[in-house]
Amino acid sequence: MASCAPVSLGREDIDRAAEALASRVPTPLAPLARAAYNLRWSWTPGGADAFSAVDPQRWELCGENPIRLLTEAPPEALGRAGADAGLVQRAQALEESIRADVARPTETTGPATDERPVSFFCAEYGVHASLPVYSGGLGALAGDILKESSDRALPLVAVGLMYHQGYFRQRIDGTGWQQEYWLETDPDRLPAALITTGDGTPLTVSVPINGEDVVAQIWRVDIGRIALYLLDAERPENSHLARWTSSQLYVGDPVTRLSQYVLLGVGGMRALRALDIDPGVVHLNEGHAAFVSLELGDSERTVFTTHTPVPAGNDSYSAAEVVDALAGLDVDADALVRSGRTHPDDEHEPVGVTQLALRTSRAANGVSRRHGEVAREMWQAIWPDRAVEDVPIGHVTNGVHVPTWVGGPMRGLLDRHLGDDWLDRASDPATWDPVDSIPDEELWAVRREQRSALVDYVRDRSAADRLSRGEPRDYGEAAAEAFDPDVLTVGFARRLATYKRLTLLISDPARALGLLTGDRPIQIVLAGKAHPRDDDGKRLIQALFAQRGAPEVGRRVIFLHDYDLDMAARLVRGCRGGVNGPRPPMEASGTSGMKSAVNGGLNLSVLDGWWPEAYDGSNGWALSGEPDADHGAQDARDAAELYRLLEDEVVPEFYGRDESGVPRAWLARVRSSLKTIGPGFCAGRMLADYVEQVYAGAAHAVR
Ligand SMILES: *Cc1c(COP(=O)(O)O)cnc(C)c1O
Q1: Distance, CA 195 to ligand 1 centroid (Å)?
Q2: Which among 50, 132, 415, 691 is placed 20 to 30 Å from 540, CA to CA?
């Protein structure tokens, strides 16, 4: 940055906050306090362990938030930790490794440089459970992109919103109905600092939204080398309505939701300008940030990723709502409204943020090959004189940040066999060749270790969840007793939208029960949230709960409340595999199966989203992905095939042991899954695709 920049981009503000915390803990723990202000700790081996060692119980109570840990741990615990020479050494090593990582030179690529970084816009970021500004898959993906950008030293900054209540928390009541509640986040207990100007007052930008000049302050969060800037309307100048803009993620009220998008897009661009950041590329991750175009003037720098083929996922608003929201801005509202319509002349058509983003970007992509096809068809009407295959929407298939999702034992195994720097080479298939020479016994032992950790977690959580719903004591305890690390564990954890067809598995209760009992049983862990306004999704959960009285169900089927990033990580590490049965072609990509695969789990999924690109017959199992207009018939067919696969292939392969107790055929499939999905669906491959095909290229230039 030029030395005349008016503000410091917030780095000094983060340093000041870190030093303030460092000065409040015993001196030997100061390195931990500084490490706490960079989320790089969360994917550094031993990072979480170093914090946990200070006070393991408090670490859990604080939701694994290191700022809270170091602020709230009793003085005796801090004193004890400060006197522990081994821990102090680990703390120093952690701080040093973060410092060295941040100090590496930037890898300049194409149009992105230090002076003109990629500016990534997203409504949510799932970086760590202790930073609650995410809801689900979109946020987890955005978090993974930031982490991988940091690892690759890509010049990138990120823009989002600071939500004071985050996304809703979930509990299920005694009738099986989802109840939502929100918890207040104290930003001062986050690894975040308000960006200040030279005189110490917060830097602000202002955006006219719905007739009010909304003032926003800007928090900086460090994710390795990446600065994440979060706009926050919680300012004394603002009305209560304006402040509500940064309250809840995906707030239900449409006027507020639209205000959030204006704050993100217009306010986000103004924040970058106030920070003297001139983007080389502006990446809109989903349509929520489409209003950046109001500040950019031209579309030469903007690229857009669409994430959902579900119509309800593509937000739209009436023309009047949009005109009202933008009234104070110097924009041609009529032209804008027209750009937001698939058919600009249709006055009855609402204004969609996806259409607006497509029309104002130089390139656009879906998030899997299949989704690219679906998106071209879905949005073809925007380019009426083009054939579907010429619609300028490409695809970059999602990938997952391996250091975040791989469990400790599995990472140790791969460290030993793939070579020290395998994570730097994870997208190269040759890196994974040595998987073939890992002894079966070693691979199996690591898998067993990871599932034992999950079983312990599930036992604790299920008892607490059940008793808190007011369930009978014996049911409350049933799963805690019966859940077994040697039983085939199947996970189904995802957003509970109807298209995900959670109920496929229980559609034939007698057959489902057969799978849960006998001498080769399966056990099932379920988790996920339905959107607060999605009563159909909530009825899905209720339908599941209606089965809980059946024999064996209470012992073998567990629904865990309040799915989040932490739970997702535990599930993908410990389940033998995941079952995914979306109604094709509604799954844009899906990433849970990738997270499970890098942990040696096997995927059984409908051939939708990413799975058609990955499935090769040897690395998991597949259900047909052919769409069928007759949903009832399709569900019946898919359920029958799902049961057949589980009964005839998955269960026999898992329990088919030789004399040493190792399932050879199963492990052959695990190897194949690791070797194909590891390189093909890691975030390194995804980011390289973005850099080469989207940021640099004009392959799918919209103009
Ligand atoms: C990975 C992840 C998702 C994505 O789930 P899919 O069903 O594969 O789309 C959602 N939520 C959380 C918390 C995740 O970590």
Answers
A1: 31
A2: 132
Amino acid at residue number 250: Y
Confidence at residue 702, expressed as pLDDT on a 0 to 100 scale: 40
* Calpha distance 97→681 (Å, rounded): 27
Q: Report how far ligand 1's centroid is from the alpha carbon of 140 (Å).
A: 7
580, 604 in Cβ contact below 8 A? yes
- Residue nearest atom 9 in ligand 1 by C-alpha distance: 590
Q: Which phi and psi (to 5°) does residue 283 adopt?
A: -105, 115
The CA distance from 100 to 519, in Å, is 53
**Which residue has the CA at smallest separation from atom 6 of ligand 1?**
590
Tokens of 528: 């996920």
Nearest Cα neighbor of 631 from 581, 594, 591, 678 is 581
HEC profile of 518-580: CCCCEEEEEECCCCCCCHHHHHHHHHHHHCCCCCCHHHHEEEECCCCHHHHHHHHHHCCEEEE
Give the model's pLDDT for residue 678: 98
Ligand 1 contacts (CB < 6 A) are 136-137, 140, 494, 564-565, 568, 590-592, 595
Distance of CA 272 to the CA centre of its chain: 24
pTM of the model: 0.96
- CA dihedral of residues 424, 404, 410, 87 (deg, nearest 10): 100
Ligand 1 midpoint to CA 592 (Å): 5
Please say whether the dihedral angle defined by the alpha carbons of residues 336, 342, 347 and 352, taken in this order, is positive or negative: negative
Contact 601, 644 (CB under 8 A): no
Hey, what amino acid is at 442?
A: E
What's the 138 CA to ligand 1 centre distance in angstroms?
8
Q: Whose CA is closest to atom 3 on ligand 1?
A: 137
CA dihedral 653, 655, 661, 665 (to 10 degrees): 0
Beta strands 204-209 and 212-223, pairing class: antiparallel
Position 8 scores a pLDDT of 66
The residue whose CB lies within 8 Å of the most ligand 1 atoms, and thus the one to mutate among 169, 564, 565, 592, is 592
Q: Are 574 and 137 in contact (CB under 8 A)?
A: no
- Give the CA count within 13 Å in the CB-facing half-sphere of 317: 25
Helix 440-468 / helix 565-574 crossing angle, nearest 10 deg: 140
Q: Which residues of the chain have pLDDT under 50?
A: 1-7, 699-703
